[in-house]
Amino acid sequence: MRLYLLALNPTDSVTEGFLPAAARLGLDVTVLTDRPDAHRRICPDIEVLECDVRDFRAVITRISTHHAPDAVFTNSDHLQTQAAQAAAYFQLPGKDWRVTLRCKDKAEMRRRLTAAGADSVWSAELTEPVAPGDAPYPCVVKPREGVASEDVVRVDGPEELVAHTKEILSRRPGAVLVVEEYLPGELLTLETLGDGQVRHLLGGFRTELSAPPHFVEERLTFVAAHPEPVVAQVLEQLDALGVGFGACHTEFVVHEGRARIIEVNYRAIGDQCDLLLAGLLRIPLFEHILRTHLGEPLPADLGARQDGAARLEYPCADRAGTLVAAPDAAELDVDGVHLTYRPMRAVGERYELYRTNRDYLGVLRATGTDGATVDRAVTAFLAERHWEIQP
What we know:
By secondary structure, the protein is an alpha+beta fold.
């Protein structure tokens, strides 16, 4: 069976998750990408074809002139609609392209939730640096189709709003920004997996962010199950959007018992959280996701482990400069906690300060059965390591 996997830059989710899962399923894989050299360096044994994957017409043509497809899949935020359109063209299982579009387009998501009566958030689209007269403060400005908290900023007044939109648009000519009311509350995630008929809840994470005005995710703690009333509110909003096929990573806040969606990422959670989740729950998560795109139903019970505790920590750069000292990759067990550290920047390279996950110096994954023990192991590991950035 032939799987076409659409990708931009290589990611851990693909190289460590989906490609090995595809091999275990015995699938023939063709990667379609606009960055073929990068993928060939990392996965020399995988067929990689160059393609303008942001254009669904180019994707369809590339597939039509190659082997017949059995599945078209992507875990990229940017390519969900293209993959859905290609799957629909070849009459293969996949997400509804209208749903992927309304999840990706943050303004359209707000309109859809409002029209369905699921939630109403003040928002407006901006193509020039102006402050809408009815904007509530504080509010948040962000790219309409952005990812990874890039150019997401909290503003407390019209002057700040104008200044930030001007700066963002100067770097993103032609972009459309969304400004929306700031939603207070604890930031959480819900991870789901569905086949269009059955939907499984995989738990979620409690997310700790950098100091305002930016929103860089610095720490995630696994939550096996959010309170049922909270989950019911989130699922109602996902249903209003039409989400239900494959993996979905939903970010939301809870304030005074009310759950409100921040954004819907209609794919598996990234930044190695998906790798942690698969190991923590002890399920073939990546295989399950691929099977849904092959038209196979999910089992009624995934058999997920129920006693797991986990945390991810992202040491972050706090300035631009050259990384001159950093710990090596590590894998160890301490007091029943399994720790996996992976560097995300090379020593000797210079980087700017991005205020996004591109500032991550590395990622530490920790899994066990007791949250307090996991926290102690993470704290000790980080205290014993050293990162140094010089101007």
